[in-house]
Amino acid sequence: MLSDVLEQLQIWIEQIIRTTNYIGIALLMLAENLFPPIPSEIVMPFAGFLVNDGMLSLWGVLLAGTIGAVAGAGVIYYVGSRTTEAGVSDWVARHGKWLLLQSEDIERVMRTFRQRGSWIVFIGRFIPGIRSLISLPAGVERMALTPFLLYTTLGTLAWNGLLVGGGMILGENWQRILDWIDRYETIIWLMFAGWVVYRLYNLYFKSKKAR
Q: What's the start-to-end Cα distance of the chain, in Å?
């Protein structure tokens, strides 16, 4: 069932990009930030394939994708700046299922932002499950707008560049990049799990010594 939905989503994304070119790319990347089920992992590699095919320009694709994603991140930031963590968690608990979100997702992202500070806005663009949400705690914590936009733009441009480059290299086989992304996400989560275990290990021994 889920694979059928993803297949239909992919067909829909391809049709939009082929029909509307750069405008479609920008709107899809805007939507990716507002509706996480729309994946940049399909949008930008397919656009890269079209660049390789001579239908689109590299810089046009990167500019459109980055403008759309930053605009979407700005909307999420604004929403966050007008509420509190409790308000966000309450809204997600009531309506998050429509966006495939849970309160735990928000709590994890808020915790990550507080632990890592402003730089996570940049790094978060490369982390699955955080990429589309990291703008929310930035707004809730009232992060200054200029560094937020700077880190978001740089991180988005780098991520989009990787995806577009992969699509250009693979050409007609651009869908293979989805397998690479799956492996990449697995590695990221294993590293995160290892870091959590390491932190818990340190906290355990520190509390033991304190006694």
A: 54
